[in-house]
Recover the amino acids of this structure.
């Protein structure tokens, strides 16, 4: 069983699970592994979101990196995809982001990118873990071989210029509401849309270290939805804490999740000839309605397990150009190497502008199957054993037999939280609500945290 890395790096409550000591060791191990067990001085880029623990963890991480001879380029507060983009652009040996994405401020995380800006495959993460937990002493440098800290916050302007260059349509005069979640997008997104000539209003762009994602952003869209529904705006965009994902809101206040956004982007890219192999990569969590929309428009769908890193791996393996998750991670390969919320919103604003239609008409082409998701609270040590239990497996079989191909049941442990997610999809909303609740209660009863 994996000890440190979940679906998106190493994550936990800062200073309890994700300690300075662990950050130091991760810095040492990652520098050694990602720079090829070097006999030279590697260059590693580091960026953060806005949470209070980033300073503490950044200092510890940087100390670990420098102790084994790596030079650290500090990017400051910047969206996760900005670190990925700049790592590849400036040919750094690796990139590191200190962020817990959509989680509340007491959590934090450390995630890595390789020299090409891609998230690490499991085998590389395993190798880093091995060094962290082993008794092997990595070579400490002395004298002039100790790494340096180089502050390059101005590099964020390179990322902003890149985002502006990715607009495929004139969005001047569009009225756009942006929710920055008091997170890493709080400077970047407003600048990008202003440079593109949109008329913007910005929400939640005053981070204080403890308000990131607090009642706002992509996981709390009521605020932006209510404001857009008043009829002033053409579209709204809500980012998560590190801005690697986005949720949209149409002019009538309806929330547009990642599935609907991917459907619109896929059809637009197919029309423009940029959807390689006419294929879209999604995860097992995506709604069956997206499969139907794709099939009706000559687009093939490929599914992976949950986690944008697995979507990206599939895209790289078979040269696909578009993929993502229901949660709002959208990867437009060839533009960036990971999910990019601001890039996605720039492209979607352009599609709406080009169509000369309201956003609700554009996103309404996909008919979603009713879907229910319930989190069952379990102890972390139990969450990977759920599907080994005969009672759970038997109940799954009964539900799937009832669906007879017109629905789905998916049970998966969260990679970042002590929960098991129970997702059910089908035509009868009341039935799936009842059965999902029963399944979640059974899981909590059998595998819940011991008191």
């Amino acid at each position: 069983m994996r000890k440190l890395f979940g679906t998106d790096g190493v994550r936990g409550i800062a200073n309890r699970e994700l300690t300075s000591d662990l950050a130091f060791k991760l810095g040492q191990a990652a520098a050694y592994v990602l720079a090829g067990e070097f006999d030279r001085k590697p260059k590693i880029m580091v960026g953060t979101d806005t949470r209070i623990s980033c300073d503490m963890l950044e200092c510890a991480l940087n100390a670990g990196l420098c102790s084994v001879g790596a030079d650290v380029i500090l990017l400051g507060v910047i969206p996760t995809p900005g670190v990925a983009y700049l790592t590849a652009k400036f040919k750094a040996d690796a990139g590191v982001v200190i962020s817990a994405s959509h989680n509340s401020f007491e959590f934090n995380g450390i995630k890595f990118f390789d020299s090409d800006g891609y998230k690490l495959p499991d085998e590389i993460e395993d190798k880093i873990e091995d060094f962290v937990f082993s008794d092997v002493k990595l070579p400490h440098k002395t004298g002039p071989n100790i790494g340096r800290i180089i502050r390059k916050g101005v590099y964020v302007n390179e990322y902003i210029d890149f985002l502006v260059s990715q607009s495929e349509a004139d969005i001047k005069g569009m009225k756009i509401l942006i929710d920055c979640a008091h997170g890493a997008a709080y400077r970047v997104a407003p600048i990008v849309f202003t440079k593109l000539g949109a008329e913007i209003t910005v929400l939640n762009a005053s981070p204080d270290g403890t308000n990131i994602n607090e009642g706002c952003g992509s996981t709390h869209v009521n605020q932006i939805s209510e404001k857009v529904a008043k009829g002033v705006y053409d579209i709204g965009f809500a980012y998560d804490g590190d801005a690697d994902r986005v949720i949209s809101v149409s002019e009538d206040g309806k929330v547009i999740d990642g599935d609907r956004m991917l459907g619109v982007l896929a059809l637009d890219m197919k029309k423009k000839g940029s959807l390689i192999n006419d294929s879209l990569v999604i995860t097992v969590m995506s709604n069956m309605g997206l499969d139907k929309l794709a099939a009706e428009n000559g687009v093939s769908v490929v599914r992976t397990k949950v986690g944008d890193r697995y979507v990206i791996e599939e895209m790289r393996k078979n040269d696909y150009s578009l993929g993502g998750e229901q949660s709002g991670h959208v990867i437009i390969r060839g533009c960036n190497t990971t999910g990019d919320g601001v890039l996605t919103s720039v492209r979607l604003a352009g599609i709406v502008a080009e169509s000369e239609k309201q956003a609700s008409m554009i996103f309404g082409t996909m008919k979603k199957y009713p879907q229910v998701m319930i989190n069952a609270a379990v102890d972390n040590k139990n969450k990977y054993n759920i599907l080994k239990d005969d009672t759970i497996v038997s109940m799954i079989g009964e539900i799937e037999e009832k669906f007879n191909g017109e629905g789905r049941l998916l049970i998966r442990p969260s990679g970042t939280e002590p929960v098991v997610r129970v997702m059910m999809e089908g035509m009868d909303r009341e039935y799936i609500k009842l059965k999902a609740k029963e399944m979640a209660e059974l899981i909590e009863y059998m595998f819940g945290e011991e008191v």
